[in-house]
User: Fold this.
Amino acid sequence: MKTRFSIITATAAVALLSFTSGCVSPTIKTTRLNPGPDASQPKAVAVHKKGEAVPSNYEVLGAVTALGVGVKTDNKSTLKKLQAEAAAMGADALIGYYTDREKDVSGLNWASALAVRTLPNGQTVPARKGDYMVAVPHTLLDKDVATGGRAEKLDKTARKFAQFYLAQKGYYSILVEEPMPDPFESGFQEMDSGGLVKYGGSETDLVLGVQFVEKKGVTVILVSGHGVTLETALYSKSQKKVIWHNTGTGAGAAGWIIDMTMPNAKRMLAIQAALQKAFETLPDISTKTTK
Assistant:
């Protein structure tokens, strides 16, 4: 009975958060690459969505992100807050701006962008490795875990939640359509520059690896309760090694309501819980958190 009550309560809570999202503010995370006082004369901040043309010459000053659970982050008021944080850094544009608009049982939402300062043609600034930018390739799933459409859904779900938890720690992430090398670390170490650039470009230093783990010959993703164990790691191109790794295990909530109305919800919530646990030890590089 407690189990059913927990599911009803959790489902109702997400629904209530979604309903009241218009009056609840998301959390704003700011990552300044060169922390300092706010700009004395903030500029108007242009917005360039992901995939749109960007200024030809610019300096990245940091990243800005809006995070919410059952809270909208794709509205004008949230964008204005991101623009204000960028302006305080001295930025005059947001580039690569994107929002996650796909709704699911988790209720997680976010919007993210890089804050940049446009430079005159010919002006340069010292190069900085992109240790605040993370490329997120496809996850590694053994054929015993899933194949075909199921594998695609698991991969999509894991990458979605990985991006959220990266944003929560102040990183700006980029989905790339490359496979995760196996083995992870040595696979990257053996790549030439042409191979590495496919993972986020030359300006991205970090690559996230997510792997579904098997235990005792039984695929954890398929056991009762849809428990999931995921291994995560960050590889640094510049340091040529894994600089962080952790393992997280999560289980989807149990209950006949979710079983009947949302058959994939258990698996999705288990993946979310596993990644949330794994990312607990990832260093937080954000420099400011506001509501």
